[in-house]
Design goal:
3 helices
C-alpha cells in the first residue's frame, strides 16, 4: 500500500509530464504546502533558476501564521506583486501534486486577482 506522500509524488510526476508539453517559453509558478507554511516560486526551467519567491516565512509576511487560507491568499498576492516588478505576467501553474482545493486554490485565485495569468 502506498503512503499519501508517495501518491502525491505520483500525481506530481503525472502533472509535470503534461505540463512539459504546454510550457513553451512560459515560466512555472510552483506551489508547496506544509502543515505550517505555504511557499510559491516562479521558476525559469530553461536556466533552472528561481526568479521570484514568496512564502509565509518571507520578511514581508510579518509573522503571519501559515497554515490557513488567509496566509495562502497573502502569499498569492505577494508572488503576483513580485512578478509584476520583474515584468512577468504569464505563468504555468504547478500545484506539485497537491489537489486543487483549499489553500492551493486560494493561493491560485489570489495570484490571478493580482495580475498573474495562468
Amino acid at each position: 500500500m502506498l503512503s499519501s506522500v508517495q501518491l502525491r509524488l505520483r500525481r506530481k510526476e503525472r502533472q509535470r509530464t503534461k505540463m512539459r508539453r504546454v510550457v513553451g517559453d512560459r515560466y512555472r509558478l510552483s506551489v508547496h504546502r506544509t502543515g505550517r507554511h505555504i511557499y510559491a516560486q516562479i521558476i525559469d526551467d530553461k536556466t533552472a533558476r528561481t526568479l521570484v519567491s514568496a512564502s509565509t516565512l518571507s520578511p514581508e509576511a510579518g509573522g503571519i501564521k501559515g497554515g490557513n487560507k488567509a496566509a495562502a491568499a497573502f502569499v498569492g498576492e505577494l508572488i503576483a506583486k513580485k512578478a509584476k516588478e520583474k515584468d512577468i505576467s504569464t505563468v504555468v501553474f504547478d500545484r506539485s501534486g497537491f489537489l486543487y482545493h483549499g489553500r492551493i486554490r486560494v493561493l491560485a485565485e489570489s495570484a490571478r486577482e493580482h495580475g498573474l495569468v495562468f
